[in-house]
Amino acid sequence: MQAVMGACVLALLPAAWMYVVAGDRLRTAAEVPRTDVAVVFGAGLWDGEPSPYLAHRLDAAAGLYREGRVEVVLVTGDNSREDYDEPDAMRAYLTRHGVPDRRIVSDYAGFDTWDSCVRAKKIFGVDEAVLISQGFHIRRAVALCQAAGVESYGVGVDAVHDATWYYGGAREILAAGKAALDAVFRPDPRFLGPQEPGVERALAVP
After folding, report:
1. pLDDT, mean over the chain
2. Domain of life of the organism in this record (predicted)?
């Protein structure tokens, strides 16, 4: 019995770490500090268009831009095959909702949260950002970006409590373990590559 209890405690430690790190860094869209860059994480496409969960994230980013709380939106997602391109779909959605194309920067190799955070720092030179995701994911995003050297605040957007929401919440328990290992061992992303001036250029345009 003690072994089982010990295993349960160890399994919950990564989640506890995420809650501690992200605890005072979560804000509503109305309260989040003004920051140059917002980062939106990919969340799947439906027939080439952002899934409802991803659309909610993008709506929040567009709202922050229109309110002058962010200047540039970095969209990070999966483009591992020719027929699946999250960043371009995210860019198109944002432009339809009032964000100028010149204010959007695409990261095509954001294959998971850690990769997105490390690439935001090392490739795009982001030192501070507002992160946008659903509530079940935002603590992990903040904790990982903090570990990657990006001073982060998280905005958790609303989501319908459907099967996807429950799946996402359950998945976070397992994902917390990987997140803790990433934060400790700091592996390189699947793709790193040279630095890109996209964010700097987007901030410089009038």
Report:
1. 89
2. Bacteria
